[in-house]
Design brief:
Elements: E1 6-9, H1 12-19, E2 27-32, E3 41-49, H2 59-73, E4 79-83, E5 86-94, E6 102-106, H3 110-120, H4 124-141, H5 144-147, H6 162-178, H7 180-184, E7 187-192, E8 195-202, E9 210-219, E10 227-234, E11 237-244, H8 246-254, H9 265-273, E12 283-286, E13 290-293, H10 302-308, H11 314-317, H12 321-325, E14 329-335, E15 341-350, E16 353-364, E17 367-373, H13 381-390
Antiparallel strand pairs: 1-3, 2-6, 3-5, 4-5, 7-8, 8-9, 9-10, 10-11, 12-13, 14-15, 15-16, 16-17
Length: 396
């Protein structure tokens, strides 16, 4: 059985201790590709476990790990290193512009040259001259344009008239009302500086509500009706999702099944087919936590089972939000006899294992709540509940 890949960010102390080592730091940051900074960097190092030594240099393995780091930690550029039989990922953040797309270079330390000299049986000074000659040659023959592609031009916003803006807002608002999921999650849209922002509002008793930006739609220049939908990867950095009319944009958000916005697109579709009403149908639970609709015998998927059989509200089904954002797929692990507790795993499969987490849905004070559970405390419902009680109900 394949072991899951484990990724753990090192603490500041651990990372500093490692990067102070000449051998580990032979490949070091030299320049931020976004702002040109050459000196002010912060290091982020991750320990990687569960990868066989023979596979550590595999392109597919490294691509899987790099994708996970980009999606979960916002890391743009990574370098894989082996030090003292341990496997690491080294990354850097620019302290001036917060970019993680950094250029690395090899430092010709005496320790590194001695190692190469031992392997090639060449004197250290001869190696140094050869390497410096190669660096000079490539520096003279490769122009700046050859080495660095031009940055993609910033998207230009098409100005809208007051009438166009209100018409677009009307389409978005109608789509929010028509979607059982989006309306249950209290999603709103507002116009700001020529763009349309989709936001989820979280009520906070006694305080102002908290607002989470889900995405934005930008009217495209040289296009009368088309907009581009984007989500924020990190602060002030946006990723394009799709392009289309206002109706197509709001439909993309409502029908999302990957987790980019909520992951409940299938539930939204089934509720729309019932007329958009939050009416719960009769569902039966079979062996192996398989659910079927009593009226038709058709399979009842995970999200629909939580809604119809267990009676969970949609805002609880949408948790844990961050795991849906990582495109993890949920699977039911255990259900309590009184059906007031559900243990579920959220998993993203990879080439050499999987990334997963466990969530406990439980009725607390007559209301359903969702709790993420520490991996080594998630074997069953009893263990998870005992761990939660020790923490005063604080999720992982």
């Amino acid at each position: 059985m394949n072991r899951p890949i484990q990724i753990r960010p090192l603490s500041e102390y651990e990372a500093a201790k490692l990067t102070d080592t000449a051998k580990f730091n032979a490949l070091r940051p030299t320049r931020c590709k976004s702002c040109g900074n050459t000196s002010d960097f912060g290091r982020r190092v991750f320990w990687i476990g569960g990868v066989p030594k023979a596979e550590q240099n595999s392109d597919r393995t490294q691509a899987l790990i790099a994708y996970h780091l980009k999606e979960r930690h916002g890391v743009g550029s990574v370098f894989f290193k082996t030090y003292r039989n341990a496997f690491y990922v080294d990354s850097v953040i620019c302290k001036r512009c917060t970019s993680t797309v950094i250029e690395f270079d090899i430092e010709l330390s005496d320790e590194m040259l001695a190692e190469v000299s031992r392997m090639t049986a060449k004197p250290i000074e001869e190696l140094r001259r050869e390497i410096e000659a190669l660096a000079t040659f490539f520096g003279e023959t490769m122009s700046w344009k050859d080495r660095w592609p031009e940055r993609t031009p910033r998207m230009k916003v098409r100005p809208l008239s007051d009438q166009e803006r209100e018409q677009t807002l009307d389409v978005f608002r109608a789509g929010l009302v028509a979607s059982p999921v989006l309306s249950s999650l209290d999603i709103r849209v507002r116009s700001l500086r020529g763009r349309f922002y989709f936001e989820r509002v979280w009520p906070v008793p006694g305080n102002k509500p908290e607002v989470e930006i889900w995405g934005r739609a930008t009217p495209l220049e040289n296009s009368a009706r088309r907009l581009v939908l984007e989500v924020e990867k990190r602060q002030s950095s946006w990723r394009e999702i799709t392009r289309g009319t206002a109706a197509q944009i709001i439909d993309c958000i409502a029908s999302d099944t990957k987790g980019t916005f909520h992951g409940l697109g299938a539930l939204d579709k089934s509720l729309r087919e019932m007329g958009g009403l939050l009416k719960r149908l009769e569902v039966k639970m079979l062996d192996g936590f398989r659910f079927v609709y009593a009226g038709t015998g058709a399979d009842c998927p995970f999200h629909e089972a939580l809604f119809h059989f267990f009676g969970m509200p949609i805002d609880i089904i949408a948790e844990p939000r961050v795991w849906y954002a990582y495109h993890r797929r949920p699977q039911m692990l255990e259900v309590s006899r009184d059906c007031t507790q559900v243990l579920a795993a959220f998993t993203a499969d990879g080439l050499y294992g999987s990334f997963s987490g466990v969530c406990l849905y439980a009725v607390v004070d007559n209301h359903w709540k969702a709790f993420t559970i520490k991996p080594n405390q998630s074997g069953d419902i009893a263990t998870a509940r005992a761990w939660l009680e020790k923490r005063g109900g604080q999720a992982w």
